[in-house]
Each structure stands twice: as C-alpha cells, then as structure tokens.
Amino acid sequence: MNPKQLQQALIAEFGDQLAETVLDFNEVTIEVHASQYLDVCQKLRDKDQFRFDELIDLCGIDYLTYGVDDWTTDSATESGFERAVHQEPQMVSTWKKPRFAAVLHLLSLAHNQRLRVRVFAEDEDYPLVPSIISVWNCADWYEREAFDLYGLLFEGHPDLRRILTDYGFVGHPFRKDFPLIGNLEMRYDANQRRCVYEKVSIEPRILVPKVIRSAKELPEIKAVEQVSGENNNG
What we know:
The chain is of the alpha/beta class and 234 residues long.
C-alpha cells in the first residue's frame, strides 16, 4: 500500500488510540497516547497488514525552544555576534504540547514501508513513557541513549543507566536548557594522581549564525564553491 493507504489503514485499525496522524513529505507519522503506546507498538509488529518487524531508531526530543530561532538573519558580519554573550530577551515558543517525546522509526521488510511513531511524556519533571523492549529487543540501548541525553524514563526497562556520558555526569546534555559549554570540566591532577572535576572555565560565545540566502544569491555561491573546488583539486 502507498503512504496514503497506510495512513487510512492506521486510522481504521487504531482509531482513538491515535492522538494524531500526519502524512507529510510522503511519510506517515502517528502520535500515540502514552497509555496506548505499548499496545499500538505490539499490533504494529504483529498485524499482517503492518508487520513493522524492525525498529530502525528510537530517539528523544526536547521541544522547549521549538520554533524559537535567535540566530536567523539575512546577513553576516565580520565584527562578531554580541548576542552570544549579551543575550537579548528570548522569543517565546508557541509549542502547546508536552516538552519531551520519544520517536520511533519503523520498517516493514514484508511490505517495504516505513512509519514514524511519536509518544509524549506528560510530566515534564518526571518524563515517563513505557519501554518497548518487549516488542523490539533492540530498543534496549536506544532507550538508554534517550535516557542519558534527554532524561527520558522508560517504565519497564531492565537496566536504565547512562550509555554515553561519564558515570559522574550531571544533567542531560541534549536538553535545550543544558549549557553548550557544560557545567563541569575534567582534567588530570598530577599531584593527586587522579582526574578531578572543576567548574567549567570556557567563556560562552556563539560565533556562527544561520544565514538565509536569497534565491538570486545561490548561483553566485555555487560559482564560488566550484572555483574553490577546482583550485583545491589543482
């Protein structure tokens, strides 16, 4: 079935279990209520019309600053970007849904179809969603990664602990309110003969904004890139 038919089949099968179903860029995304998440995932794997046997990826998302972009600009400057140090008042996000979500990307080898599944954690202070290890065993490390980087908690996970950051790491580095320079830095102390943690000494500064190029500028940019590439190859 094509993506439109897949969307219709999902709506017919799950009905009110789905909070939202979106077909965009020829891809289907469903949003599932946390209370229905595990049941929907089980059926997505086992129902003959779906057979999403393979979990390609599971990741966390923090929507804290969704839609907010301080650095969008129409021009660049050679004098530095003072806003990196002296922040202007932040724009307010218009996001109305919960802050944290887990997103799955599924693949049906039998039907050659892909599906994106999103579930929100209702409590921002205790972001909890069910674990899907019982459905796709490979979710083990994916869920640990989402816990480590975003602080998402997966109820029923047998070994939920950090997988990428240090054992003594404080916080979750992919959260939007986590400082880019971190909170602590580590160095080896020769006198103590061990690694020590200290307050980070790096000055926070962002130097690269996002520059929006107009359509008429693109041919000129491509021409410069082509000349630069020819010079490098020569």
